[in-house]
Amino acid sequence: MSDARIDSSAPDSIETNRVSANLGVGRSASTQQQAPASGALSCIASACLDLKTSRETTWSDLTPQSFYARHGQRALHLGLVACALPLILSVALPIALINLAIFGDPRKILFLQPRVGRHGEVFIMVKFRTMIELDGSSYKSWSSGGDGARVTRFGRLLRNSHLDELPQMLNILRGDMNLVGPRPEMLEINAWASQRVPGFGRRLALLPGITGRSQITQGYTGKNAEAYAQKLHGDEHYRCRLSLAEDLAILARTCLWMLRGRGWQWSQPDVREDEESERRAA
User: Fold this and answer.
1) Which of 53, 185, 204, 242 lies at a C-alpha separation of 20 to 30 Å from 235?
2) DSSP H or E run through 249
3) Could you tell me if residue 6 is inside a domain?
4) What's phi and psi for 161, nearest 5 deg?
5) How many domains does the chain have?
6) pLDDT digits (tens, 9 = 90+) for 218-239
């Protein structure tokens, strides 16, 4: 997403260290509780159905129980990262040097941003910086379609090839992410999507991934409720079919996706459609 600060004016944010999860058990967007806005930087939650109040659906119900899902996947992904580490470092070092030349500050080589992880836990995701800093917020830039104008020429190359995600190998080693899984959303975007897509929080049953089924079929998703519904559909397809074969297939298709430079197919968000959905929700 965008390379900037979390916005205190994002929709429906409350102070907490995890986000609520809309597990899709019958509440519509128009009946969901509206939470007050807050200036909390590290913890912004969506005003959706909280897991603790849901007796119909729990994280255990949504978590795949196969041996591979419980044990094999994590071992495989850590092993792949360990084996690829020399190659990863050989690619990451030149990228870091180029970013240093572009931004002129070693503190701006990387970009750190809170994202929503498994079970709504907030973690700090790391990536190579690809955008010029702005005085506003990531959420406002994303929602207004300003991301396309802020990305640098080298940043566009990194995003199209997904090489900007290489530092997230650190997140995998820390246990925040896997190689394959639902893509972790920015906190404000997770709140926005949860209000408009029933059951959007179900994707939080899994560790987020650097790549996933939605990434290789849909690419970058702008501010469009229908696109986020499609993203949920892809992530649910993966969750229900999680297996060694599925992971290997996604990793293989990701390599092809990267070689074809299709990682960031940015398009202007449909503001009129979003305004219409907000009127219906009101």
Assistant:
1) 53
2) helix 244-259
3) no
4) -95, -5
5) 1
6) 877 778 899 999 999 999 999 9
